[in-house]
Design brief:
This protein has about 450 residues and is mostly helical. The protein has a single domain, classed as MFS general substrate transporter like domains (Growth Hormone, Chain: A), CATH 1.20.1250.20. It is globular.
């Protein structure tokens, strides 16, 4: 079956549903048990839950220990920037892990690399609970990120195995109902754990959650890449595939847009615990509530995006989201530099930043990957690695002035949001309205 989609414009000929309720906004491709040679692909919201569960390793690695950063700094006798390097190490691990796991999953299938990665996540999280210095914590956080990367990169590849164009953007929006729970509940779990134990208990809790996700992946995650669609050959063949993807100007453009927007959010994530707790004197529990409120804004925006993308197209909604992010970042910088209205100005600015991301993330992902159905693992790895490398660069910059100065966080967010807008408008018309033509198996 030859399917032609316009990833930037409204999808006038939506894919036929295979067991998905119309209200879900999720419409699968033709992959089934016969095509994959494995258990049947879950249908409807069961698929959203399974893939979403695999996608939450980022929020788990990043968000759950945020309320404990000041405590880690005191316990390990490390400065603010040194502790934020534990976040950088995790982000670099996630970035490099995706570069490794993505191409492997295109050759070996999705399930095997996924299970190995989650196992590494569980073991390294357990080890983090017993470190005695910040340098050992850095190393283990790197391994933890490498393991968690498997869930992140393979979840995106599964979506691209099954969906394309606007339908993929709608699925990514629905996926945020699940992945959005990570930023909502992870800091809250971390804050509650701190009520009963130290920051070390948070890493043990991460290991327990990872073990649960391992069981879910083992029993529920589908194999969506049939043997006949897997790549053969060694490093040379992989390098050729990577070269083909990076020569796609549309992919590179939207990957850079997505990464700049993601970097602005990482500036918020890495700096918010110090800014809100040390400058504005919120308790760890109140910080968790504020972080959850902002994550709710992200989820709500993603659902609005899912309902509008069929009519308005991914390109227009991506631009809208970037403008909202820029407005929120600018408002935050003005609030912290003038001290005008205090938290009454800071908190709505952060809500706007996260609300904008709810439009940016699903549309940028769908547009970047729309031309690469046969290299979904590589495309997902390159995109995700770029995002997390930008985030790894941002994290220590935010803390360069110590834990009582919010200006670096504001400048970084404004700079990256502005860069994302410039990148978006620098894309030529043909790149922002690209047509993906690909052969898909007939159901």
């Amino acid at each position: 079956m030859l399917r032609v989609t316009d990833g930037d414009q409204p999808d006038r000929h939506r894919a036929t549903s295979v067991g998905f309720p119309e209200s879900s906004g999720v419409h699968p491709g033709p992959t089934d048990a016969a095509a994959t040679g494995h258990a049947r692909v879950p249908k409807g919201w069961r698929l959203v839950l399974v893939v979403g569960g695999l996608s939450i390793f980022g929020p788990l690695c990043i968000d759950m220990y945020l309320p404990a950063l000041p405590q880690i700094s005191r316990d390990l006798h490390a400065g603010t920037s040194a502790v934020q390097l534990t976040l950088t190490a995790c982000l670099i691990g996630i970035a490099l892990g995706q570069l490794v796991v993505g191409p492997i999953s295109d050759r070996e299938g999705r399930r095997g690399p996924l299970l190995v990665g989650i196992g590494a996540f569980v073991l390294s999280s357990t080890a983090c609970a017993f470190v005695s210095n910040v340098y050992l914590l850095d190393g283990l956080r790197f391994v933890e990120g490498m393991g968690g990367a498997a869930g992140i990169v393979i979840a995106r590849a599964i979506v691209r195995d099954l969906f394309e164009g606007v339908t993929a953007a709608r699925f990514f929006s629905n996926l945020m109902l699940v992945t959005g729970l990570g930023p909502i509940v992870a800091p809250q779990i971390g804050a509650e754990v701190l009520q009963f134990t130290s920051w070390r208990g948070i890493f043990l809790a991460l290991a327990v959650v990872g073990a649960g996700l391992f069981v879910t992946a083992l029993t529920k995650a589908p194999e969506t890449l049939p043997a006949e669609r897997r790549h053969t050959g060694g490093l040379h063949a992989t390098a050729q595939i990577v070269g083909r993807v990076v020569r796609d100007r549309s992919f590179v453009g939207y990957a850079l847009v997505s990464s700049a927007g993601f970097g602005a959010i990482l500036a918020y994530i890495s700096g918010s615990s110090f800014v809100l707790q040390d400058i504005y004197h919120l308790s760890p529990q109140m910080f968790g509530l504020v972080f959850a409120m902002n994550a709710v804004a992200l989820v709500v925006a993603a659902q609005i995006n899912g309902h509008l993308v069929h009519r308005l197209g991914s390109g227009a909604l991506l631009t809208f989201g970037l403008l909202v992010m820029a407005a929120g970042a600018t408002s935050f910088l003005l609030a912290v530099s003038t001290h005008w209205l205090g938290l009454a100005a800071v908190l709505p600015s952060l809500v706007a930043l996260l609300f904008g991301l709810g439009f940016v993330s699903p549309n940028a992902l769908a547009l970047a990957m729309q031309n690469h159905a046969n290299a979904a693992g590589v495309a997902s790895a390159l995109l995700g690695s770029l995002q997390f490398l930008v985030g790894a660069t941002v994290a220590p910059i935010v803390g360069v002035s110590g834990n009582h100065d919010a200006l670096p966080m504001g400048f970084v967010m404004v700079g990256l949001a502005g860069a994302a807008i410039l990148l978006r408008f620098s894309l030529p018309p043909r790149s922002s309205v690209s047509v993906a033509t690909e052969m898909l198996p007939v159901p």
